[in-house]
Amino acid sequence: MTDITTLSSEAFSGLSSLQYLYLYNNRISTLPSGIFSGLNSLTKLQLQNNEITALPSAIFSGLNSLTNLRLDRNEITALLKLDNLPQLTSLNLNYNCITALQDGVFERLTKLSTLYLQNTCIENISPSSFRGLTNLRYLYLSNNINLKMLPTTLFDEVGNVTTLQLQYNALTSLASNQFSRLSRLTQLDLHNNDITTLSPGAFNDLSSLLYLYLYNNKISTLPSGIFSGLNSLTRLHLYNNDITTMSPDAFNGLSSLQYLYLYNNEISTLPSGIFSGLDSLTDLRLERNEIKALLKLDNLPQLTYLNLNYNCITSLQDGVFERLTKLRTLHLQNTCIENISPSAFRGLTNLRYLYLNNNKLSALSIAVFDDMKTEAYINLYLHDNPWACDCRLRGLRQWVEDNRETININLYGFTCQTPQTYAGLDFMDISEENMTCTSPEFSELIRWIEVDEGNTVALICDATGVPEPNVSWITPNGDIVNKSSNSNDTTVEFGDLALNNQGTIVIVRSQMKHSGLYACIAVNLLGDAACITHLRIVQKVTSSTLYSTTAMDHNATIPITNAKSISEHKSTVGIATGTFFGGLFLGVGVIMMIFMIVVIRKRTSAEGNCREQTSNLTFRFSDLKDTFKSRHDGVKGNDSIVDLNTTVMKNEGADATNREEIPDRYVKPPEISDQLSQKQIYEMQMQLKRMIHHTPLSHLTPGLLNMCMKPLQEIRTGKTSQFLRCLDGIVNNL
């Protein structure tokens, strides 16, 4: 840099043989007329990085040998029609501030092959600005941040262009046939614009196009056949858009496509057949979308790399990848996966890198690896999952041990989360024999809760088992309440009820309509278990007490406070009533002993006597209720009691299609609250509860809950009425 500010018009006179003139990095602001006269041999003129504001008319006249002209990084604000420069092949006008291009401004530059107009403040381009540039090969129009539209016929006379750069402008749409005259175009850069719409036919007749870059726009939809005719296209970059919808034939005709990048969009569904015909595709990137389900992918015979990271695909179905026979790398990390079907990776005989880390996997069958060639080196990433180191992972533990030489597993972070005794331990530190499972169990099978109307009540489902059981509730009206497996909420609302993540139902302001039977169902791979809670809402008197059968050390969200003993709450009965109940309880005690002897004796009999055992048990409870009621004003208790044995046995033999029919003998139990006081009813319930609690579970279960286990299976098909009627029969007979 020599800090030249002015030049004389005769500064270069007599230099007819001069070929290269470098005047860049000075402070030249004006060019005198005739300064370049006589430079007939000049081929390269470099004037970049000066302070030139205007180009005088005919300033370059006579430079018939000039091939390269650089005027970039000046302060030119307007561009008049350039002189006839018959040999000029490269013109650089970058980093000026030419806001508009007029018609025919370059038409006398007939041999121009490269035109730079980047960062030039262009806002408007006339339709015929590039008229006459029949030899143009490279056109750079990027980084003109105020350029919002292109005339439809702008490129009609530059049919030999092979590279067109339009990135970092403010284009909002592409018109139909916008580039149809560019039959030799191989690279089209449209990334980092504001394009929202791709008009049908926008890429018509671009049969030579190899690279199409549309990333970092605002495209929301890929219309049908939008890329049809791009038979030579090898790269299509559509990432960082707002794509939500793709027509099933959006990629039709892209038989040469090798790289398809669709990551960081809002795609939730992959239409069936969306990738059909992409026979040359090797790399497919779909990470950071909102894909929730993955159907069997199309036949992609050359695909070697597939990335599905950061979606929410909760499960992988059998054979979903089986047509990707050359796949070597599969990314599935951070994808919300909870379940992988045994044959999900069927057909992936060439897989070498499998990323399953950072998901929600607790178990994994070794069958998923059956088609992987263990004689070849496999890199397997399973860390940062909530692994349950129980019987379900025994096979995986042995498989890893047997294939240590050919399988590389990242053991860092490959730790157990459950059972609690193994939490935080490395997976490989747990021996196979210590990976065990147990079926669901409840500490109590029947519970009673009574609460004053308006108070909060918590119904706790404290099932234990390995693996941890899935918990569902059946409400008195037959609704099935459970927590969605992919929900991260700590509490889920179901009308008046709230279910927290410990499986506890919370009713904040209890009402009379909430009374009834609530069944908690716990299920794991070893079986089912049920616990019945009988909730009774008492019409409000004056109380703020919350009753629960279980202390809140089960992590329930509602604390139990101001608890009062049942005897304090119900201790106002007179001496005469107390004498009566003393006799009653003596009778109940005798009946209880008879009941236990009968049940224990029947428990040792063969399976064929199970029904007789049930009959005896039901009779004893019915007899107790009848005896109790007959002692009070002649109230009869047998007339309206459901015949539980007949009802249950009838339904056990009934056809599955008739399970929803209500038996004729099922009638509503009598309303005895009009004849008996609340205290009397409550004392009867408490006596029965004490009886049940002192009965061995092994005797109680066959006599009560097991009668409802067959109807319990109907729950999985959404049918709950038969199960509820069975439970109603049990409690009504109590």
Keywords:
single chain, alpha/beta, Immunoglobulin-like, 9 helices, 38 strands, 15% helix
Provide an overview of this structure:
There is one protein chain. The chain is of the alpha/beta class and 734 residues long. The chain has a 17-stranded parallel β-sheet, with no helix packed on it. A hairpin with a 2-residue loop joins strand 37 and strand 38 (527-538). The longest helix has 29 residues, at 575-603. The chain is elongated.
Outline:
The chain is of the alpha/beta class and 734 residues long. It contains nine helices and 38 strands.
**Mean pLDDT score:** 78
Tally of helical segments:
9
Main beta-sheet strand count, sense and barrel state: 17 strands, parallel
Evaluate the radius of gyration.
41 Å
Distance between the termini: 105 Å
What is the overall shape? elongated
Residue share in helix: 10-25%
Give the uncertain stretches in residue-range form. 543-677, 687-707, 709-713
Number of strands: 38
- Alpha-beta content class: alpha/beta
Strand percentage: 15-25%
Set out the fold topology.
Blueprint: E1 20-22, E2 44-46, E3 68-70, E4 90-92, E5 100-101, E6 114-116, E7 124-125, E8 138-140, E9 163-165, E10 173-174, E11 187-189, E12 197-198, E13 211-213, E14 221-222, E15 235-237, E16 245-246, E17 259-261, E18 283-285, E19 305-307, E20 315-316, E21 329-331, E22 339-340, E23 353-355, E24 378-381, E25 387-388, H1 394-402, E26 407-409, E27 416-418, E28 438-441, E29 446-452, E30 457-459, E31 464-466, E32 470-474, E33 480-482, E34 491-494, E35 497-500, E36 505-507, E37 516-524, E38 527-538, H2 566-569, H3 575-603, H4 610-630, H5 644-653, H6 678-693, H7 697-703, H8 709-712, H9 721-733
Parallel strand pairs: 1-2, 2-3, 3-4, 4-6, 5-7, 6-8, 8-9, 9-11, 10-12, 11-13, 13-15, 14-16, 15-17, 17-18, 18-19, 19-21, 20-22, 21-23, 23-24, 24-26, 25-27, 29-38
Antiparallel strand pairs: 28-31, 30-36, 32-33, 32-37, 34-35, 35-36, 37-38
Helix pairs in contact: 3-4
